[in-house]
Write a structure and sequence with these properties.
This protein has 446 residues and is an alpha/beta fold. 40% of the residues lie in helices and 15% in strands. The strands form four sheets. It has an eight-stranded mixed beta sheet with strand order 4-11-10-9-8-5-6-7, with helices on both faces. Helix 7 links the parallel strand 5 and strand 6. Helix 6 packs across helix 11. Bound molecules: pyridoxal-5'-phosphate.
Length: 446
C-alpha cells in the first residue's frame, strides 16, 4: 500500500529524518511504499541523488528495504519504536496462540528458591566488579561446553544470544558486508542484520541444518560471516547432524576470511547431541543461551571462541554496558548446579518432543508434511500464508505467517507447539489439513 504521509526536507539527512519520524509516529506503517526517488525529488525540488542518499541511509539502518520493481518499502519490523504495532496482528481474543515461539512458562524452572538462596549468599551489595565473568561461571561454562565437544577457553557473558551475535557482527563486519543466514531463519536475526546495514545471503536449510551447497554458494557470493543454528532451528526445527557437521567442517576448514558463529539457543532443551563446527575456522564464536531451558527473562548467554574474537566482544562490552550483572550470573550458576532443575529441564525437553512429534505425526497422517526435528516449533510449507493463517484463525488457532522468516525460501507457517496438550493434537491437525486444502465453495461442481 502506498503511504499518504508527506515526506519533507531539502537535504538527505532531513528527508531520512522525516521518513523515520513517519515510522515512529505510525503514519508510515510496516510494508508501506515510499515514493519513487524521482517523484519525491521533483516534489521536494531536490536532486534525485539527494533522495537516493536518504533512502540508502535508511536502508543501511534497516528501516526500509528496496526490492527491485517493488520499490522502497518500510521493513516489516524497523528498529525504531513505533506508536503503532507492527504488521503481525495480535492473536485474536479467544484463539489459542501458537504464534509466539516462546517456551511454555509452566515448564520453566521456578526461580524463587534460587533467588532466596542467593539473597543469603550475596550479603553486602557489590560495586563495580573487577571481572566481567564470574570465575565460577566461566569454569562451569568450559566444562559444559567441553562435554559437548566445544573447545572453550576464553569466555564472555552477554545479554542473551542475540546480544552476543550483535556484538560479534558489529565488531567484525562493516555496513554493506554480506552475512550468510539460514533461509528460512529466525526473524529477529534478519531484523538485526538489516539494522546493522549488513546484506543477508540466504542459505537453504533441511532437517540436518544449512545445506552444504547453500553454504558453498554463500561463500562464493562473498559472505563475511556465517550464522548457524546448532539445534532447534527457528522456524524449521533443524539440528546440525554429524554428517552435515563433517561436510561443513571440510568446506570451512581454514577459511580465514569468514567469521563463523554458532547459535545454540536451545541448549539443554534441544535433546539431540550437539555437532559443533567450533574451531574449524580461525575466527569463530559459539553462543549458548539460557533462555529456552531456564527462561528468556534471565537475558543471559555464554560465548566462547578464538581469543581475538572473544576479546573484541568483551573489550567492546567493557567500554559500553560493562558486564552482565553478577546477580544474574550467580543465578544461572545456581540453576546449572541444581540437580532438581536439571531434572525439570530434561522433563520439559521430553514434553516438547512429545508435543512436536505428536503434531508432526498427526499432520503426516492427514497428508500434511511438516518439519521439526527438535525444539518448540513446526514449520509447515503452504501455498498461501495469508489464506492458511486466516483460515486457522477462524478455526480458533493463531499461527505465525513465515513471511518474516524468509528471504528466498518458499512460504510456510510456523506453529509453536509449546502450549499444546495431547488433546489438542488431533483437532489442530484436522484444522491445518482443512486450511491447506480449502473446500470448494458450495454451488460449484467440478
Ligand atoms: C535461533 C534463535 N536464537 C536465539 C534465540 C533467543 O536467544 P536469546 O533470548 O538468548 O537472545 C531464539 C529465540 O527464539 C532463537 O530462535
Amino acid at each position: 500500500m502506498a503511504a499518504h504521509y508527506q515526506i519533507v526536507g531539502s537535504s538527505s539527512a532531513a528527508i531520512s529524518a522525516s521518513v523515520e519520524s513517519g515510522i515512529r509516529g505510525g503514519q508510515l506503517a510496516p510494508g508501506d511504499a515510499l515514493p519513487a526517488v524521482r517523484a519525491l525529488a521533483t516534489e521536494l525540488a531536490v536532486s534525485p541523488a539527494t533522495v537516493a542518499k536518504a533512502y540508502q541511509e535508511l536502508r543501511h539502518r534497516g528501516l526500509v528495504v528496496t526490492a527491485g520493481r517493488h520499490g522502497t518499502r518500510v521493513r516489516p519490523r524497523p528498529p525504531v519504536a513505533a506508536r503503532r504495532a507492527g504488521r503481525m496482528p495480535p492473536p485474536l481474543p479467544g484463539t489459542r496462540n501458537l504464534s509466539a515461539g516462546q517456551p511454555d512458562s509452566r515448564l520453566l524452572p521456578p526461580l524463587g528458591p534460587h533467588l532466596a538462596a542467593l539473597a543469603a549468599e550475596i550479603g553486602s551489595p557489590t560495586g563495580y566488579v573487577s571481572s566481567a565473568v564470574l570465575p565460577e561461571l566461566a569454569e562451569a561454562t568450559r566444562a559444559r561446553l567441553a562435554a559437548d565437544g566445544v573447545p572453550a577457553e576464553e569466555i564472555a557473558v552477554t545479554g542473551g544470544a542475540l546480544d552476543g551475535i550483535e556484538r560479534l557482527l558489529a565488531a567484525n563486519l562493516r555496513p554493506g558486508d554480506a552475512v550468510a543466514v539460514e533461509d528460512p531463519g529466525w526473524a529477529n536475526l534478519l531484523d538485526l542484520v538489516a539494522a546493522l546495514g549488513l546484506r543477508p545471503i540466504g542459505v537453504p536449510v533441511d532437517d540436518d541444518g544449512p545445506t552444504e551447497p547453500g553454504v558453498r554458494s554463500a561463500l562464493a557470493a562473498g559472505a563475511r560471516a556465517l550464522i548457524v543454528t546448532s539445534r532447534a532451528q527457528n522456524p524449521t526445527g533443524a539440528a546440525v547432524s554429524a554428517e552435515r557437521a563433517e561436510a561443513l567442517r571440510a568446506l570451512l576448514a581454514g577459511r580465514s576470511d569468514l567469521l563463523l558463529i554458532e547459535d545454540d539457543h536451545a541448549a539443554e532443551l534441544a535433546h539431540v547431541p550437539l555437532h559443533p563446527l567450533a574451531g574449524v575456522t580461525p575466527t569463530w564464536a559459539f553462543v549458548r543461551s539460557v533462555s529456552k531451558p531456564y527462561g528468556p527473562d534471565l537475558r543471559l548467554a555464554v560465548l566462547t571462541g578464538d581469543e581475538a574474537t572473544v576479546a573484541r566482544v568483551a573489550g567492546r562490552a567493557r567500554v559500553g554496558a560493562g558486564w552482565v550483572s553478577t546477580v544474574l550470573q550467580r543465578l544461572v550458576l545456581a540453576l546449572w548446579r541444581d540437580p532438581a532443575t536439571a531434572d525439570l529441564v530434561r522433563r520439559a525437553a521430553e514434553s516438547y518432543d512429545r508435543r512436536r512429534d505428536g503434531l508432526r505425526e498427526a499432520l503426516a497422517a492427514r497428508g500434511v508434511a511438516a518439519y521439526g526435528r527438535t525444539g518448540i516449533n513446526l514449520w509447515v510449507p503452504v501455498a498461501d500464508e495469508t489464506v492458511v493463517v486466516t483460515t486457522l484463525r477462524d478455526a480458533g488457532w493463531s499461527v505465525a505467517p513465515g513471511t518474516l522468516n524468509r528471504i528466498a525460501a518458499g512460504p510456510g507457517v510456523r506453529i509453536t507447539v509449546s502450549s499444546l496438550d495431547e488433546a489438542d493434537l488431533a483437532p489442530l491437525a484436522d484444522a491445518v489439513a482443512r486450511a491447506l486444502r480449502p473446500v470448494a465453495s458450495a454451488g460449484f461442481t467440478a
